[in-house]
């Protein structure tokens, strides 16, 4: 950041402002996503952040770096969004002609959305020396889901300290609190997260690639026995914004039986989300057109599938996937 560029931006030069903030735009979006668990909410809050930065730039005195100042604005914008009562509520079951079995439980994070790995391509986020998480783990669905149940202030401290490695003093200043209070919030957040963290993304080995290919064949042909054979005993299925969650082989097999029991067949288009294998799911129609039915994200453990998360078809455009496919 040059002084001349900053002065031009402060004087109202919009092009200079864009040049100042462009290096930070993508990492700020990732930060907002971690805190909010929703790709679309992160988009909205990022725009609020950049508007606040533009209107407040004259007050930036350079006592911290521009990056730290932007993170302060973004974090507090996320905290406001987390406290809002307008977050997406759970959705009623609306799959035609399918009666789901009784769920194991109801999920707590109906607003959860996946993050496309394409949006992370080539992005390197500077980390402080105190960062405790690999970037891939802190983008996993398990991690993002776990932090959503923390109180807002604890989320902010955890992400700023343990994911990004900001110093304790800077985090306290960002949140307008004391170092002692920030450290106390961090301690409580770590304790809760330790109890709730799931499996981090696995590096795809040849055996895991074979597992993925077997999943595609079984799911696409509605082979329930073949699907169940690929799962861990503690398999977990969730489907935000629907709150239904199923855990264990018997519960998941019953769910598959309900979904595929009426002859529904699906085409899967591979992609990746949150560092995990993912698929656009397209329900085959009698007219030769397969219509977007959602996005499925897999979590792997020891050459088995230990979790499946299904999202609605509204997320497909974020992954560059079409709304429908026509058979050749």
TrEMBL record:
Interacts transiently with the RNA polymerase catalytic core formed by RpoA, RpoB, RpoC and RpoZ (2 alpha, 1 beta, 1 beta' and 1 omega subunit) to form the RNA polymerase holoenzyme that can initiate transcription. This is RNA polymerase sigma factor. SUPFAM superfamilies: NTF2-like, Sigma2 domain of RNA polymerase sigma factors, Sigma3 and sigma4 domains of RNA polymerase sigma factors. Residues 20-88 form the RNA polymerase sigma-70 region domain. Keywords: DNA-binding, Sigma factor, Transcription, Transcription regulation. Residues 142-193 form the RNA polymerase sigma factor 70 region 4 type domain. Residues 212-306 form the SnoaL-like domain. PROSITE patterns: SIGMA70_ECF. Residues 83-95 have a biased composition (Basic and acidic residues). Belongs to the sigma-70 factor family. ECF subfamily.
């Amino acid at each position: 950041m040059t002084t001349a560029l900053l002065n031009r931006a402060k004087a109202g030069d919009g092009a200079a402002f864009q040049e100042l903030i462009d290096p930070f735009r993508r990492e700020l979006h990732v930060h907002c996503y971690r805190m909010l668990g929703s790709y679309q909410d992160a988009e909205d809050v990022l725009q609020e952040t950049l508007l606040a930065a533009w209107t407040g730039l004259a007050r930036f005195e350079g006592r911290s770096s521009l990056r730290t100042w932007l993170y302060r604005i973004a974090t507090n914008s996320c905290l406001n969004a987390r406290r809002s009562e307008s977050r997406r509520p759970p959705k009623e079951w609306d799959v035609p002609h399918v009666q789901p079995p009784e769920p194991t439980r109801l999920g707590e994070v109906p607003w959860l959305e996946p993050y496309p790995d394409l949006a992370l391509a080539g992005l390197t986020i500077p980390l402080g020396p105190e960062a405790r998480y690999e970037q891939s783990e802190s983008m996993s669905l398990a991690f993002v889901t776990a932090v959503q149940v923390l109180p807002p202030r604890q989320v902010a401290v955890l992400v700023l300290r343990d994911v990004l490695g900001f110093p304790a003093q800077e985090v306290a200043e960002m949140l307008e609190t004391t170092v002692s209070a920030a450290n106390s919030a961090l301690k409580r957040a770590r304790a809760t997260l330790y109890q709730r963290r799931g499996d981090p993304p696995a590096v795809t080995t040849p055996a895991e690639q074979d597992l993925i290919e077997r999943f595609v064949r079984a799911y696409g042909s509605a082979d329930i026995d073949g699907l169940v054979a690929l799962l861990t005993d503690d398999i977990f299925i969730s489907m935000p914004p629907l709150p239904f969650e199923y855990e264990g082989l018997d519960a998941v097999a019953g769910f598959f039986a309900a979904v595929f029991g009426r002859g529904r067949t699906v085409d899967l288009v591979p992609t990746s989300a949150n560092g995990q294998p993912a698929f656009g799911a397209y329900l085959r129609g009698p007219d030769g057109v397969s219509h977007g039915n959602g996005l499925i994200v897999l979590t792997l453990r020891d050459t088995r599938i230990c979790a499946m998360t299904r999202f609605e078809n509204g997320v497909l455009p974020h992954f560059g996937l079409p709304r429908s496919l026509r058979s050749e």
